[in-house]
Amino acid sequence: MYGKAFAPEYQGALNTLSVNSSLTDVLAAGTRELRAAEHAGRQGEVARSGLAVAEAHRRLGQVGDADRAWKASYRAARAAGDTAAMAWALWSGGTLARQRGAFPLARRLLGLAAELGERGGDVVVRGYSLAGLAETGRIQGDYEAVRRLHEQLLAEARRRGEARHTVWALEGIAQIHRNTGEYDTAYALFEEAAEIAARADDRRGHAWALRGLADIVSVRDGNVERALALLSEAERACRAMKLSSALAYNHKMRGNVLYRAGRWAEARDLYEQALAEFRAMSEPRGQALARLGLAKSLARLGRDRAETAAELAELAGELERIGLRHAREMVARAQQEFGVAAEVVR
Q1: DSSP labels, 29-56
Q2: Phi/psi of residue 182, nearest 5 degrees
Q3: pLDDT below 50 — which residues of the chain?
Q4: Is 322 helix (H, G, I), strand (E, B) or coil?
Q5: 123 assigned to some structural domain
Q6: Which regions span the lipid bilayer (predicted)?
Q7: Terminal-residue alpha carbon distance, the chain
């Protein structure tokens, strides 16, 4: 049995904020409490308020501000001798590093966060940090390495009745199954995640689950209208909460659905929109995936074959550099699809 979803990253004076609070509201409240704590010289509260500020900036795509905020939160936590607060700051920094495509740094910071969380007796930050490590591996395509960790974290979250973390783990495992072609299993897991998130009033988790379901009904069933309807429902939640990254991924997925349906001009427009959104928040993985969809759409619309070859070769090199194995395999399939796999751009 799951209770209502909560946001453990909103701490101290901000612990009354909802998991569904608009990020602009979180940022305003966090900044206000941060200034008051700084004025009063309460380093522990500076760390806790600073964490909320860092997370609001990160989810709004304001990466420079997020980077400064998590580091300031960590310094305040260290000054206060608060090990758990140090762990939370490192978790935020590691999550930001993953968002920016700095995967080795993400793993290092999240590993340290898990260690400090255990040392500080905070089981939640330990779990979130291990989850971050699992997600980092999954995003890079290291499925076998992280599948067991995902399942371990799912069991722990179920045991504690923590809805938000259960939803995250279900979605992660579902994505692994989807990427390995096990569509029925993936659909069932995304469906369970959506149901738990809805009952727990976790709108962010629900939006991501709906996106996953839309992907499956598009690629497995060819049901374009249902997929688009699911994405529209998810988009409303993203806009209400100002979830910039989730909204950009929603638009990219809408492009995928339209591309599969042969509606290439519409897909092109969605990929262009998503690419601009990802660039605005300096999110390299999202940029790469949107560029790939855009390149494929333009090729279908008659783009010069040599230009397609050059774009895909450049994208393959970029993904190799970042370390995104699954996305690199997607580019390889696109090169084969358009008959440019053997062409080398110098």
Answers
A1: HHHHHHHHHHHHT-HHHHHHHHHHHHHH
A2: -95, 75
A3: 343-346
A4: helix
A5: no
A6: none
A7: 59
